[in-house]
Amino acid sequence: MKRMLICLAMSTALTVPASAQDVKLGLLLGFTGPLESVAPDMAAGAELAIKEVNDSGLFLNGSKITTIRADSTCVDAGAATAAAERLVSSDKVSAIIGDTCSGASAAVLTNVALPKGVVMVSPSATSPALSTLKSNGFFYRTASSDARQGEILAAIMKDHGVKTAAITYTNNDYGKGLSDSIKTNFEKLGGKVTIVASHEDGKADYSAEVASLASAGGDVLVVAGYLDQGGKGIVRASLDAGAFDKFVLPDGMIGDSLVKAIGKDLNGSFGDIPGSNSNGAEIFKAMVTKAGFKVGPYSAESYDAAALTLLAMQASKSSEGSVFKNKIMEVANGPGEQILPGELAKGLKILAEGGKIDYVGATNVKLVPPGESAGNFREILVKDGALTTVGYR
Amino acid sequence: MQDYANAFVLLLNYVVVPATTYGCQLALGALGVSLIFSVLRFSNFAHGELMSFGTMITLLVTWWLQAHGLTIQPLATALLALPAGVLVTVLLSLATDRFVYRYYRIKRSDPIVLLIVSIGVMLVMSGLVRFIIGTDDRTLDDGVRFVISAKQFRDLTGLQEGLAIRATQIITIALAAVSVGLLFWFLRHTKTGKAMRAFADNEDLAGLSGISAQRVVTITWVVAATLATLAGVLYGLDKSFRPFVYQQLVLPIFAAAIVGGFGNPVGAIVGGFIVAFSEVALTYSFKRFFSYVLPADWLPDGLYQLISTDYKYAVSFVILVVVLIVRPSGFLNTRSS
User: Fold this and answer.
1) What residues of A are in contact with residue B23 (Cβ under 8 Å)?
2) Pairwise CA distance, residues B126 & A341, whole Å
3) With 80 as the cut, is the pLDDT of residue A19 above it?
4) C-beta of residue A388 within 8 angstroms of C-beta of residue A378
């Protein structure tokens, strides 16, 4: 009897029709670690898209999507791999939205996603190294490579009249890649980089690091680090010692917690963060406010990452990674009907009827090979103790 | 002349002031380690965790005081909470002695056994601290930040270089000086202090002269725990409190105690400053300093930095190894090791 039941159970499991199965998405983000203050808004962004698709009831003939959150820790590649392994092997997710950080994304891609054939869409991994990593089309990102951010930042610095700059970066893939790109681009524009020095996260005291940066000198200090970690310590120590009073803040340093911690001394510093002025951003902001959370760094990219994944599944009528991965670029770049945030139901309907769409989303998604966002950036200026948007690039 | 003044202020700002503050914090820690070593005759590796525990209690009391609106502006509230932190830490160290170390002392175990026991105590304490307050980075300082800021100094003197002195740096140096003074007076001039020194010189002879061993041990723990809490709170005020960082502090503290000669209080203080100044000066980039004192065309492009700041911790290791090779008993020790 028992055996029969098991056989029955197994056969039912095997013969579940393709029409309405439940699809699981893994949210692999750095819920603890250096970007822990950013991760909740990212998760909320992704879950907003998933809820929208669920509510429409149009996804893969009425399938429901469930999300499973997992903590990648961002800095510990081993922990990130283990978390991803669990998502794939025991929770059986169809795709992973994540990871937050570049190093962890590379580890998960190489050790889990690629061998198991699971698609990964990262909303925020920006290291240039990921562009050249072998992915067989299983890795996409709705964030752009830092090679692009370096170009933008260098241009912003030039516009602010910066002639010489000192650069410090957090000692990992993200920091190294970004600082290299800023240096190359800034020098191309005629600027002079006085020093490029790394710093370790998680120290109590950064006065020695700041002392050598100060000795090299420069109009500004570029801090390619994290706002909850060494980046904050470097800014604090620089201000304490009077070494620098203006900072260039790349995406990892943009967040309200930094402004709150440092206060008015940060006024006049500037930076950038991915973002666009398309209609999508405005609509997304309204949706987010209605849903009761705030637009944090990368929450729009997270929404787009989840929406893109689900739309590609719909387009290929399958939640099998090896099948729907071929549709991601097509859905993102069109040609077809333009889909903004809040219009996912419309997109699902068009795809179900065999039509074509061009997903615009909250960040004006345009993917360039090998599958990363072309990159739109929001220029930020710290003014009166708050982050203000100057313009878009 | 202006150039030399600038160079001087530059060194003060980036080397002398930070290293002096750091040296004071290390010296207080090293004094505690040194005291335990000379009276109880073992290397107490749990000293960093004792600092961490004391700082944690002080932080908790600080929060409580802040919640009740009890502050002593412009000074940091943590200073008001410090006595409570000291008290609880003293109680903890006495309890540890009663339930752990006493057993091995009565058995007259080897110092090496006690050393290993202290590593066990360290692990338990670090677990306790993480359990109570977590692993996050916390700030203790809520008082006025600067005595003089770099910009104020520049405006005042008209020099290009600024000198920033933070309130916490002054507090650290002042409190360290006062407590070291009190400690020396205690060891030299009080009967209990003399008893402790006698006990440190020869345990059995001290016992025969009617000195109570238990009393000396208790007082040693009280003094060591007080010094540990003080060192921990001052470090936390000046920088920030994070359990992991405090665990790592054991290394420079032991380097300081060994450099000066284990068991010698003056040595511990001198050792603290040697380690602090070498860490800061060896990793400092002297480029800007030379740009003031050398003619412009003598100046090559390099940073004039002996080693990268990434290797700051290695400095303590190197000092430790060199001292152990060249003069194992320490520079200021008159006793044989």
Assistant:
1) none
2) 48
3) no
4) no
Burial B70-87 (b: 16+ CB within 10 A, else e): eeeeebbbbbbbbebbbb
* Interface contact B308-A197, CB threshold 8 A: yes
Residues 232-271 of A with CB under 8 A from B: 240-243
Pairs of CB atoms within 8 A across A/B: 81
CA separation for the pair A321, B146 (Å, rounded): 58
Question: Residue A79 carries which side chain, given as an amino acid letter?
Answer: A
Pull the structure tokens for residue A269: 């510093």
H helix or E strand, kind and range, residue A174? helix A173-188
What is the pTM assigned to this prediction? 0.76
Angle between the B111-133 and B243-260 helix axes, to the nearest 10 degrees?
A: 150
Tokens of B11: 């060194």
Please, what are the domains in chain B? 2-258 (1.10.3470)
Query: Shortest CA distance to A94 belongs to which of A315, A331, A322, A311?
Result: A322
**What domains lie within chain A, and their CATH numbers?**
23-143+278-343 (3.40.50.2300), 147-276+376-392 (3.40.50.2300)
The answer to whether the CB atoms of B283 and A212 lie below 8 A apart is yes
> What are the chain B neighbours of A212 within 8 Å (beta carbons)?
283-285, 303, 305, 309
Answer yes or no: are the C-beta atoms of B239 and A197 closer than 8 Å. Answer: no
- Which candidate, B134, B144, B7, B8, places its Cα nearest to that of B77? B144
The alpha helices in chain B, defined as continuous H runs, are 2-11, 17-40, 47-67, 77-96, 102-106, 111-133, 150-157, 167-189, 191-201, 203-208, 213-238, 243-260, 265-282, 287-293, 312-326
Query: Binning pLDDT at 50, 70 and 90, where does residue B336 land?
Result: very low
Given CB atoms, is A198 within the 8 Å cutoff of chain B? yes
Question: What number of CA atoms fall less than 13 Å from residue A291's CA on the CB side?
Answer: 23
C-alpha span between B330 and B337 (Å, rounded): 9
**Which residues of chain A have a CB within 8 Å of the CB of B241?**
204
Spatial CA neighbour of B225 closest among B37, B33, B24:
B33
Average pLDDT, rounded, for chain A = 88
Q: Which residues of B touch A197 (CB under 8 A)?
A: 308-309
Residue of B148, B282, B309, B312 for testing the chain A interface, max A β-carbons within 10 Å: B309
Whether the per-residue pLDDT at B245 is higher than 50: the answer is yes
Mean pLDDT of B189-209: 91
- Considering only the beta carbons, identify the residue of A200, A212, A217 that sits closest to B305: A212
- Cβ neighbors of A164 (< 8 A, separation 6 or more) are A191, A192, A193, A194, A217, A218, A219
B310/A198 touch (CB, cutoff 8 Å), yes or no: yes
Q: What is the C-alpha end-to-end distance of chain A, expressed in Å?
A: 67
Distance from CA of A81 to the nearest CA of B (A): 23
Of the candidates A185, A193, A195, the one whose C-alpha atom is nearest the C-alpha of residue A155 is A185
